[in-house]
Amino acid sequence: MPGFELFGEQEKQNVNEVLDSGVLMRYGFDGMRNGHWKAKALEQALCERMQTKYAQVVSSGTAALTVALASAGVGAGDEVIMPTFTFVASFESILAIGAVPILVDVDDTLTLSPSAVEKAITQKTKVIMPVHMCGSMADLKSLKAICDKHKLILLEDACQAIGGSFEGKPLGSYGDLGCFSFDYVKTITCGEGGALITNNEDFYIHADHYSDHGHDHVGNNRGTESHPFLGYNYRISELNAAVGCAQIQRLDEFLGIQERNFEVIYNALKTLDGVTFRRIPQGGKQNYSFLSFFLPTEELTKKVHSSLSERGVDACFYWFDNNWHYYRKWEHLTHMHSLGKLPEEIKEQLPDYSKSDFSASDYWIGRTISCLIKLSWTEKEVKERAEKMKNIVSEVLHA
Ligand SMILES: *Cc1c(COP(=O)(O)O)cnc(C)c1O
């Protein structure tokens, strides 16, 4: 997902247009801006590409998740179901609005297990938040059925899976709300930025106001706008949006490169007995930003992972021991280390995660290696990498 690999002249030109106009803010200053509305243009491009009615671009993916939850009316004491394998932004955004993150096991899709989700639903559950980790999706059809049955909101965190699809719909557009990140390491980047997409007009209007201090954006005079409800500042700047406008035009080109590079490595590894791959739910097409595979045991997986890095195959991750992406290393959450006092709802309702049983997640994540698929590799480099990976895995498996 390396947005940091490919950017060029169009990005520079767009940024210069903003600098030349002198208007770095996304709202107002209509007379000065010479027709440059970069955040708005990025929203329009997202609506077209993602086939949704609405998009709200904000300052980060974490902000997009927070704004999405707030726009759906989620607040203190509401429970949000999220996976044990994700980026820390998932529980940060939930806690930020006073809601309670309910961690639930992942399965061989490496994202939310629908059967584990059903078991976790209570009277207080309001949202199911699958996270399409490492470029591929949760079983959205099953999760949608659960949401329909229990009248819950389906919020897709598609921050790592932009460009993938499920049953022909772009990831992020299948649920009630979908979020993207355009931080520096995602498939496309703004430097920093994020977006939510939805077909729900109320959610969109809420998101538009909430992300800008509650301003209703009626008319173009910030002095006379009204403020129907409280908000915060999650705005993106025009400079960041300008980069995103150029990047989104190249999304399909990037996806094509990722898929081509992925296939070379996949074809090499699939010949090996003992190597299996994450399950892609039926109807899904991943975005090929990572290749994730399983080995027969945790011990063998650790050996393969260290051999890969010792022998110079970079960008392969063993999430089980990684301190950002798996619940085992989230001590700040499990021990609730916060700078100030937490809302009572969170303190009372948060499960004691230091005692939780997530052995079903451990079973999969303990045997998973994910390799980042880069865009800048030459054909020769991908082939050599694939061959080298195949040899290393084979040697460890047969030692
Ligand atoms: C990157 C990421 C986020 C947060 O995005 P930022 O723009 O870095 O705030 C949220 N969820 C997932 C799965 C991510 O990978």
From TrEMBL:
Family annotation (InterPro entries): DegT/StrS_aminotransferase (IPR000653), PyrdxlP-dep_Trfase (IPR015424), PyrdxlP-dep_Trfase_major (IPR015421), PyrdxlP-dep_Trfase_small (IPR015422)
Top-level taxonomic group: Bacteria
Pfam families, per database record: DegT_DnrJ_EryC1 (PF01041)
EC number, as in UniProt: 2.6.1.-
Residue ranges that the Swiss-Prot or TrEMBL entry lists as coiled coil: none
MF term (GO), any: transaminase activity
Gene3D superfamilies in alphabetical order: Aspartate Aminotransferase, domain 1, Type I PLP-dependent aspartate aminotransferase-like (Major domain)
Record's keyword terms, sorted: Aminotransferase, Pyridoxal phosphate, Transferase
Family assignment from sequence similarity: Belongs to the DegT/DnrJ/EryC1 family.
PANTHER family associated with the record: DTDP-4-AMINO-4,6-DIDEOXYGALACTOSE TRANSAMINASE, TRANSAMINASE
Protein name as catalogued: DegT/DnrJ/EryC1/StrS family aminotransferase
Species this protein is from: Maribacter cobaltidurans
